[in-house]
């Protein structure tokens, strides 16, 4: 699989070699409107068929092919977002490997300029692995992008070892609470207390909170009671093709127009 991955990524035509992006909306819990869409990579192997990102991303990271793949995903996501209403943001996952390369800030700013998308509409999703070992290059890059207006979200929050300390290292705009907590947020087993604590910390620091993997109305009700800002999950929508997300966004804009009439 890794040889095919290499050939596909280095072919000069990543999109023509089985890679694509799907988009999943993030919804404001208070008014049910779409705030942004997260770009998620998909790869169809010529023989094995669709391969989960959980399988191919680690291989791409080990081989550093994620540098080309991540840049391609960023350019594609911004190109799509340039066709969306300006009120809708676009979230792109960025690997720790990309953060270790000194040119990331430049590449992101160049991609924004090419697409014409305002930096405020771009949100980079990073995991705490980016900040492990107090990585100076990564922190400098984050600050440079943040100063330019790019939003930064801490993804998969709660899954690592010392997540709270990472909140002091960088002024994140958003925390994405991992789905392992959201799964049981409506059960009486303690998940709700953890989610409440995360939301309280985030709110005190003016950060948005996004609940990942929301699948039921009961989970959504519990999150609303806990004061969570946004939700993402199958309850509202699975990740969909770029062509389908446009319909979602048009319906959302129509809904806004009807509310404001
Ligand atoms: P992630 O960034 O945490 O993305 C959220 C994952 O949860 C996605 O899996 C999404 O399809 C899935 N998901 C969304 N809603 C629900 C739900 O209600 N229930 C459940 N069970 N799952 C839900 P996906 O697309 O398979 O991606 C897996 C991981 O691969 C991502 O996790 C991210 O870490 C990585 N990934 C995907 N695209 C990229 C990319 O462009 N660059 C990098 N560096 N990593 C990526
Ligand atoms: Ca993510
Ligand atoms: Ca996540």
Q: Tell me the helix content.
A: 40-55%
Q: Spans with pLDDT under 50 lasting ≥5 residues?
A: none
Q: Which whole number gives the mean pLDDT?
A: 93
Radius of gyration: 18 Å
What would you say about this model in short?
The chain has eleven helices and ten strands. α3 packs parallel to α5.
Descriptive overview:
With 261 residues, the chain is α/β, with parallel strands linked by helices. It has a single domain, classed as EAL domain (TIM Barrel), CATH 3.20.20. Helix content is 45%, strand content 21%. It has eleven helices and ten strands. It has helices spanning 2-9, 53-62, 66-81, 96-100, 104-115, 136-147, 163-169, 179-182, 191-204, 217-226, 242-260; strands at 19-28, 34-45, 49-51, 89-93, 122-126, 151-157, 174-177, 208-211, 230-231, 240-241. It has an eight-stranded mixed beta barrel, surrounded by five helices. α3 runs parallel beside α5. The radius of gyration is 18 Å and the shape is globular. It starts with a helix and ends with a helix. Residues 38, 93, 125, 155 line the site of one calcium ion.
Key traits:
single chain, 261 residues, alpha/beta, TIM Barrel, 8-stranded mixed barrel, 11 helices, 45% helix, globular, binds ligand C2E, binds calcium ion
What's the structural blueprint in terms of helices and strands?
Layout: H1 2-9, E1 19-28, E2 34-45, E3 49-51, H2 53-62, H3 66-81, E4 89-93, H4 96-100, H5 104-115, E5 122-126, H6 136-147, E6 151-157, H7 163-169, E7 174-177, H8 179-182, H9 191-204, E8 208-211, H10 217-226, E9 230-231, E10 240-241, H11 242-260
Parallel strand pairs: 2-4, 4-5, 5-6, 6-7, 7-8, 8-9
Antiparallel strand pairs: 1-2, 1-9, 1-10, 2-3
Helix pairs in contact: 3-5, 5-6
This protein binds ligand C2E and calcium ion (2 copies).
